[in-house]
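Pipeline run #58 for the internal structure catalog. This entry was flagged by the ingest filter as a single-chain record with no existing model, so it goes straight to prediction. Upstream metadata was stripped on purpose; only the residue string is passed forward. Reviewer on rotation: M.T. Logging verbosity set to normal.
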Amino acid sequence: MSSPLAPRLWGVHALGVAAIVAASGLGMWQLDSWQAQRAAEASDLTRLDPEPLADVIGADDRFPGDKVGQPVVVSGVWVPDGTVYVSGRELDGQDGYWVVTPLAIGPVDAADDPGAGDAPALPIVRGWTADPAEAPAPPEGAAEMVAWLQPAEGTGEADTDRSDDVIPQVRTADLIQRVDQDLYGAYGVVATDVAPGDWPTGGTAVNDGTEGLSAATLEQLPAADRFTGLRNFLYALEWWIFAAFAAFVWWRYVREVTAEPEDEAEPLDEDGQGDGPGGDTGDDPGGNPAPGPGEPARAGGGEVADTDDASAPGAGTRPVADPVPSKP
């Protein structure tokens, strides 16, 4: 029996441990994502002190899952040509649209710089309107305000008419086709109610683009998919099941290669003959049964054998060929 710690099995052990550790770690990662999302949904960050946008998310960063609704101070230059209208937003029971215009992020005093509008832009929900045709003209120039930060939407609803400026959701893939610069992986909603302090909001905001529009609120957001967090939890279970399966395969393989081989040979008798085919059965080598009492011994092929005993039946006889049947 081979030892499970034999050097030839070290590679198998290393592979088994690596598979179990990797699958367990991925399961824990998915579990942490699920718990983080639940915590984010249970918290309301809109009344926290606003933070500079750069302290929360960068232009190339993924959206931080624990910052949904975080008030941020944004400043830059409006990109009016990128204005779109997001359908399916309801206000006081009336269906309408969000008015969204990108803001190229940068210092307010850089508005006179011809290249300021080429900086990465953050889409800003300026407000709500019942009809895009009645919405005021998009703002231009420098702006500074407080906005509630939101992750880009991805409900899967397709834009059925790309020839107009109406889109079904605030999705980066739809917005980036209308601007020449990069976009943040997030968007902001102009904040109307923030924590007390000296913040650029309301009358102290600089050109926030809300004039002529009804205030947009986070209650107008589409309902979140309740199965999104559940999927992360199920993914964690799948990874742990895979880890258990890898452990089983590892154990089974080592058990089989180290098991003592079974002896399948049959026991032999005193003459060295087995009980199987070709063993001593009492018959002659020709396959004929042994003669019974009073029967002459037969040679192979059914012939009667000679015998030296004159008194024995059939003594002195010679082999006789089988009679040939006569022809009719």
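catalog note: The radius of gyration is 45 Å.
catalog note: Residues 296 and 304 are 7 Å apart (CA to CA).
status: ready for reviewer M.T.
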